[in-house]
Amino acid sequence: MLQEDIKKIILKQEAFFKTGKTKDISFRLESLKKLKKAIKENENEISDALKKDFNKPAFESYETEIGMLYDEINFFTKHIPSWSKPKKVRTTITNFLAFSYIYPEPYGISLIIAPWNYPFQLTISPLIGSISAGNCSVLKPSEFTPNTSKIISKIIKDNFEEGFITTIEGDAEVNKLLLDEKFDYIFFTGSVNVGKIVMEKASKNLTPITLELGGKSPCIIDKDTNLALTAKRIAWGKFLNAGQTCVAPDYLLIDKNIKQEFINAMGKYIKEFYGNEPQKSPDFPRIVNERHFERLSKYLEKGNILIGGQTDKKDCYIAPTLIDNVNWDDPIMQDEIFGPILPMIEYDNLNYAIESINSRPKPLALYIFSNNKNFQDKILLECSSGGCCINDTILHLASPYLPFGGVGNSGIGSYHGKATFDTFTHYKSVLKRSFLVDLALKYPPYNEKNLKQLKMFLK
């Protein structure tokens, strides 16, 4: 795709937005209804595409990519009429005989750049928010998942006018071309390094952005915990999508007194989930491509492999793996793993665990496993993170009432539920004054009496 083609698409979207159609609440609701119907009609094709791109099982595809979008659309459909209404707010005494309102309005044209790890859900979920807020949208799915990208493009092309929503496929070069253009809002999900590029490009046009990034999400395990359920829930959260989840537990900080018992429990649940040979399991996905396989394979060169460690380059397969004896300076502890490899570091003092977390960039998620409320509260108070889940993994993402987003290196802004609507909405402040009264106090020339009266109002 050439720069001229992108410019033409943007001009079409600008023209469509100027018609005012997207500001009509009934148009937004009808668009969401059409989107839900289109997803339902293409469920099998979406699932097949995810299977081709990841070997993702149908259950995981529905659980993490399709079904939750239905919930989201239903939630938005219910609340858009009230969210979109102007809200009357209090007016100060200095604005006597005036009324104050906040008007929600769309930004205009949104650019949504999606990642490859949940390629369908993380393209469509922000789109739901963009539609709901009244924007036009340009979607850029990931080139690393070509089959999913193709079905997204088909769904959008078959159901929506190009001026309203369009999909642009292509590689990183297309991303660069898109970011050279002026959009009214940019929503990016991906790596920290690319997020910095997006932010730099957006700054040239002062374009507001949301960056959903990642980082190394720690998982702290207290000796006072239900160890069997702790291991089961961590195994599920870590090996879901073969670990290619931005909020997967990235490393364990475990009380040394329960370490061996935990290792035994993890081995039990990995076997229970995926059998003796996970490569033959229909429920264990593959690494997205050879490049990421090579990156992950290097992490296996240091440390002591306790469980797993098997690889197959031709199949892009890496087994569910638990590693011990890693150091903070090892490559596996430098960057987000984004794969089915889980390193563990023991501690005998909670302060050490907290200091270890706080000496590194703020994570997207923080996991705490403990029955001890004081233990939980101490970590919550002393450690900053985008979000936190206590005694489970991943599930804090599933609530429309909990905004999801990062802090520091793990991201800027948040979404999910009302937070998604807020992200794609500009809240315009409006003051309506009456002509009945006009205070002479505010007008020049000023004198001592004016100042005394002003101080009475503003003291």
Query: What is the terminal separation in angstroms?
Result: 61 Å
CATH architecture of the largest domain: 3-Layer(aba) Sandwich
* 3D shape: globular
CATH homologous superfamily annotation of the largest domain = Aldehyde Dehydrogenase, Chain A, domain 1
Question: CATH first level of the largest domain: which class?
Answer: Alpha Beta
Q: Name the beta content range.
A: 15-25%
Low-confidence sequence ranges = none
Predict the CATH topology of the largest domain. Aldehyde Dehydrogenase, Chain A, domain 1
- Approximate helicity band: 40-55%
- Mean of all residue-level pLDDT scores: 95
> Which class do the helix and strand fractions yield?
alpha/beta
Biggest sheet: strand arrangement: 10-13-14-9-8-15-16
Radius of gyration: 25 Å
Q: Tell me how many strands there are.
A: 20
- Taken together, the total number of domains comes to 2
